[in-house]
Amino acid sequence: MKKDYFAPIIVLMVICLVVSGALAVSNSITEPIIAKAAAERADSARKSILPNATGFELLDIENFRSDGSISKRITDVYRSTNNVGYIFMITTSGYGGEIKLICGIDPSGKIINTTTLSQTETQGLGTPVFAEAHAGQYKGKDKNGAEGISAISGATISSNAFKNGILDALAAFEIVRAR
């Protein structure tokens, strides 16, 4: 009776341990490969924004956050190693959720390019904000020029989220450049 009761439990425990071990080994093998691929994608995205950059240096923005001068929307800041500009990684909230953007700014404070890494806005309604027709308006603009860009009718929350993220990047640029 006891054997019939405990045998299935022991067999299931052994199976769980073997499967857990296999998953741990699989994870330890694939984790560095996944991290390397993610780093390459991020570097590729930065190079697409600042194509003339020879490399990027990650700045420690926590030094700038201590006085609250850089918005929490700015997650990372990179400076090109050959001084052609800065890259700002931005996470903002739109109507449909989190929006991740990249903004490149040249040394004079003008936007070189922006791109959307991810977004969950309503298809067809909020997504035109990320199309070149709207997002492309920011190219070549400084803070004053970017403030004048209008929201898309029917997608004002998404448009304003995009715009506020870009304006935060421009404000952060002024702080990072000054130090």
Q: How do the SSEs run, as a string of H and E?
A: HEHEEEEHHH
Oligomer: single chain
Name the helicity range.
40-55%
Mean pLDDT: 86
Distance between the termini: 77 Å
Q: Based on helices, strands and strand pairing, what is the structural class? A: alpha+beta
Shape: elongated
Give descriptors for this structure.
179 residues; alpha+beta; Sufe protein. Chain: A; 5-stranded antiparallel sheet; 5 helices; 20% strand
Description of the structure:
With 179 residues, this protein is of the alpha+beta class. The chain has one domain (50-178): Alpha-Beta Complex (Sufe protein. Chain: A), CATH 3.90.1010. Helix content is 47%, strand content 20%. The protein has five helices and five strands; from the N terminus they run αβαββββααα. It has helices spanning 2-49, 62-65, 132-135, 143-147, 156-178; strands at residues 56-59, 74-80, 86-93, 98-105, 111-118. A five-stranded antiparallel sheet has the order 1-2-3-4-5, sandwiched between helices. It starts with a helix and ends with a helix. The model has no long low-confidence stretch (mean pLDDT 86).
